[in-house]
Amino acid sequence: PTSRALPGPEEVADLARSAAQACGADLPAHQGDREGRSPVNGAVISRLAWTSPEDVDAAVEAARAAYLGWRTVPAPARGAVVKRWAQLLVEHQVDLATLVTLEAGKVTSEALGEVQEMIDICDLAVGLSRQLFGRTIASERPGHRLMETWHPLGVVGVISAFNFPVAVWSWNTALALVCGDPVVWKPSERTPLCALAAHGLLQRALEEGGYDASVAQVLLGGPEVGEALVAHPGVALVSATGSTRMGRAVGPVVAARFGRSLLELGGNNAAVVAPSADLGLATRGIVFSAAGTAGQRCTTMRRAIVHSSVVDELVERVAAAYRNLPVGDPSADGTLVGPLLDRRSFDAFTAALGAAVEAGGEVVVGGGRELTEAAPDAYYVRPAVVRMPAQAEVVHTETFAPILYVLSYETLEEAVALNNAVPQGLSSSIFTRDQAEAELFCSVVGSDCGIVNVNIGTSGAEIGGAFGGEKETGGGRESGSDAWRAYMRRATTTVNYSGELPLAQGVTFEV
Ligand code: UN1
């Protein structure tokens, strides 16, 4: 399954150009000398100009000016723009997914799924545009009404990562737009065509609605552009997705200017496999979450904490599945594992495996590079399963590559302790048929993560729930549930219609 021919350099470059143009990406306007390479075969597929940090100010100022108009557009009318955007995403789902495959290396089904996630969040946001509710609260004073109103917040800066080059931006943007906020987006420098294409579709929806196009802006560029956006006092909310290292830099800068930040950082997600688990189901859940997306999701399963009575059998099943995983051209039918992003990702994969072995780990399957001759400038690997004697330092670290560390446990308390022992707190799951065990894992004394699943893997969350995690994952929540509140400000209002002036807390103050 690994000997497939990969597409040639011209082929991917042409495909990328035409898909981006079909979405309305203005490539001539962005032409420049920054080369973008496809992880599929290492070929150059874009030559674009990067924004300089000095241009960030103009973009934020334009967004601030657009905000003054956008905030007064009724929320359901803002929702109508998002509805049109969703229609365009449906029309161009294949074009955008093609770009996701070419720039992020995702297999076709996952690339289409990423665009589907955009369509889904648009649907949610359209409904939300008529439901930005505040509460009325029982006042302690007679003849008074206490209520809250949610108002637009201001400019939202979105920083997104290569691995979800369009969906994570859309979670933020669909909500921000219905909430009345303009968005300035700094996408990953690795996925500029995805960004221009996705942005092109949104621009079209805004223009068709007759709205100021500055409501949505995109700034191609490197980390300096992100830094300028984060530091800008005109950005009310910075929503940043990426590594914990990046979040450590962003958080304090935003806090120092009393801005708001929404951080979605590293994960180190585990599945607990209990003695009663359906091992067939657990195997499928684990393989999708651990090897899918070539281990490059923040929700990727990096640890399996397996009861000692089933660990040998489970490892055997997972290893058998890994040996047969079709690794290769992500656009080819049947491929399940595409490339790593680049050489650096491959080096990190190799180094982590080395550190694991040094700490007493045994590599059960995988770990080698594949398709080296067919694609010397691309980095395909066989996903690895490593049995670890203990949760060594390397297991505490998020390596953005497909390595699954397997640990074993005796008591559920021990399994929960292992699950919670890492610094990250994004996603977790338990495979069990014992209801009490499942409930305990989901309870206050169970998993400490933002996402706690039962009998499914750690990745592939739906947009309806709030997405994010605790500890070094950053604490932010995006996407569904009441995550929209992060994009608005709350005004609490007390209205006195009594004709008297009773004071709260029974205070008397006669003048
Ligand atoms: C990410 O990797 O940054 O739950 C987001 C999931 C996807 C989102 C992942 N819906 O795996």
TrEMBL record:
Keyword field contains Oxidoreductase: yes
A Pfam family recorded for this sequence: Aldedh
Keywords of the record: NAD, Oxidoreductase
Chain ranges of the Aldehyde dehydrogenase domain: 35-490
Top-rank taxon: Bacteria
Keyword NAD part of the UniProt annotation: yes
Molecular function per GO: aldehyde dehydrogenase (NAD+) activity
EC number from the UniProt entry: 1.2.1.3
Active-site residues (renumbered): 264
Family under the similarity heading: Belongs to the aldehyde dehydrogenase family.
Oligomeric and partner information: Homotetramer.
Protein's UniProt name: aldehyde dehydrogenase (NAD(+))
Organism the protein comes from: Ornithinimicrobium cerasi
